[in-house]
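Checklist before submission:
- one chain only
- standard amino acids only
- sequence pasted in full

Submission:
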Amino acid sequence: MGGTNWPAVLARYRPLVERLGSHDDLIDLLWEVQGELGTSHAYVKPKLPKPDKTTRQGSLGADFTRDDDGTWRVAGVIPGESSDPRARSPLAAPGVDVRAGDAVLAVDGRQIPTNGGPGPLLVGTAGLPTEITVRSGDDELRRVVVLPLKEDLALRYHAWVADRRTYVHEHSGGRLGYLHVPDMVSAGWAQLHRDLRLEMAREGVVVDLRENGGGHTSELVVEKLARRVVGWSLARGFSPGRYPTDAPRGPVVAVADEWAGSDGDIVNAAIQALGIGPVVGTRTWGGVVGIDMKYRLLDGTQVTQPRYAFWLEGKDWGVENYGVDPDLEVVVTPQDRVAGRDPQLDAAIRLALEQLERQPAAAPPEVPPI
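Returned file contents:
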């Protein structure tokens, strides 16, 4: 209990129970009680009703701009990711072919309001065939049927990863790969392996752990990153293969920020402890007292029980309520975000290329003459 006198905490807050006027008041009170633990992962989550499909907002997976005359145009269509069914791009679907610059005039025959844009007319359309009227640059008027998304988070995420990957490739002259690990559960494990084979084949790799939502697979990720090439397989008609498979050929540089937490804290601490490579960015979230979310109240409200403390080499018990300091601190300012700059990624690229100058990447041996 971290030294907390739990019976005394309950006795202190119990008189407030009689003054509760609603379920929301109860949830607030439980949050305050949990907060007395002074640990991470102390959550109270009420059971929420299932969303009403008729009021669910649909998304076209695009950005829009408004002309001076009130016409709404597609500023950009977010490309889809074929490996993720959640990341389809409605306007780029076969037979739709809506592009940047096209004007969107109506949804299901209803004219788009000048001040509201297409959003209000897409309420209740998620996952349902929806007709939109568009006018392309050559003034051709078309009516096409699309399937709006329930949300475009996955679509935008994959586009962001693709943009970061291209950035690293271009600014390293193709020498460095790029991997982003969004969390430490099945989704993050799948995302890592979506790009692992191709990106690890380059001379070095930048592993982006920013905004990592945590979970329980950090040791698996660390095992991948800690591999070292000790052999090569050379088969006729194939490119040389590394042994162990997917081992990094050269430097590994991690990128972290204040939104990387829980197992996202732990993976950065482990990268440092094992000497896998430097961590660039800002201090991580600082929450490594874990939970298993086993218990709920009678009405379905989830109240977590923080119970798994974590000791880490070089950090002792100090990551909880503090985080993991980067080896090189680089802060992304609001001005950087507005300008589209990523100084943390720039620093990671620079460090990896400097390491390659000192220690070239592992390369396959010469094949002996026959």
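Reviewer check: The chain has a mean pLDDT of 94.
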